[in-house]
């Protein structure tokens, strides 16, 4: 069993979780611009050194926390049918966008993307790309099963699947309603040219 070298920092998972929770709470209450390392450390009940052992800057800390939160909520649905996969994926997307804390954080981070090229790059490359990769795997499986046409424009399809949910929940701030996912899945299947439309 390997021993931790003397003097090496040991990152305790419970401390990391307390810090992660504090970052999300501060983002929800203060927004990115007013968030400070000092406030996060105080809320988490740790010294600032605990933050700097994990991340070099506020930007790196927020990048890591928001990316982990967002990517961990991306569905990797494999129900055996496109209809089932779409249903699970859309429910997961709605759950992410309506999460009580994240729904307060997201509008501020979207605005921050316009001001902060570094955050915009992180959101695009680490959150967006990772979530889109999961969606592409789902669509490629459906093509392999013969449910979707082989010449499907994957980029356009991925945009078309996520955009209505984002528009409804984030831009319009309208509730999804009890049958919204089923209606949207049926609409998406027709739009994608699915055999099961």
From TrEMBL:
GO molecular function terms noted in the UniProt entry: DNA-binding transcription factor activity; transcription cis-regulatory region binding
Annotated DNA-binding residue span(s): 36-55
Sorted UniProt keywords: DNA-binding, Transcription, Transcription regulation
Residue ranges of every copy of the HTH tetR-type domain listed in the record: 13-73
InterPro entries noted in UniProt: Homeodomain-like_sf (IPR009057), HTH-type_TetR-like_transc_reg (IPR050109), HTH_TetR (IPR001647), Tet_transcr_reg_TetR-rel_C_sf (IPR036271), TetR_C (IPR011075)
SUPFAM superfamilies: Homeodomain-like (SSF46689), Tetracyclin repressor-like, C-terminal domain (SSF48498)
PANTHER family: HTH-TYPE TRANSCRIPTIONAL REGULATOR RUTR, TETR-FAMILY TRANSCRIPTIONAL REGULATOR
Name of this chain's protein: DNA-binding transcriptional regulator, AcrR family
Provenance organism: Amycolatopsis australiensis
């Amino acid at each position: 069993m390997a021993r931790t070298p003397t003097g090496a920092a040991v990152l305790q998972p419970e401390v990391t979780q307390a810090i992660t929770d504090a970052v999300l709470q501060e983002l929800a209450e203060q927004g990115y611009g007013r968030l400070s390392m000092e406030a996060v450390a105080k809320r988490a009940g740790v010294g600032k050194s605990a933050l700097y052992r994990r991340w070099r800057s506020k930007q790196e800390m927020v990048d890591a926390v928001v990316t982990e939160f967002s990517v961990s909520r991306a569905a990797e649905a494999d129900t055996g049918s496109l209809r089932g996969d779409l249903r699970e994926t859309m429910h997961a997307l709605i759950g992410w966008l309506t999460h009580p804390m994240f729904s307060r954080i997201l509008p501020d981070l979207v605005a921050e993307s316009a001001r902060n090229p570094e955050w915009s790059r992180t959101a695009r490359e680490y959150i967006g790309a990772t979530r889109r990769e999961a969606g592409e795997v789902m669509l490629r499986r459906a093509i392999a099963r013969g449910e979707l046409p082989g010449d499907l424009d994957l980029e356009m399809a991925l945009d078309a699947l996520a955009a209505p949910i984002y528009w409804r929940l984030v831009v319009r701030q309208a509730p999804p309603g009890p049958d919204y996912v089923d209606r949207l899945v049926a609409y998406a299947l027709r739009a994608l040219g699915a055999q099961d439309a």
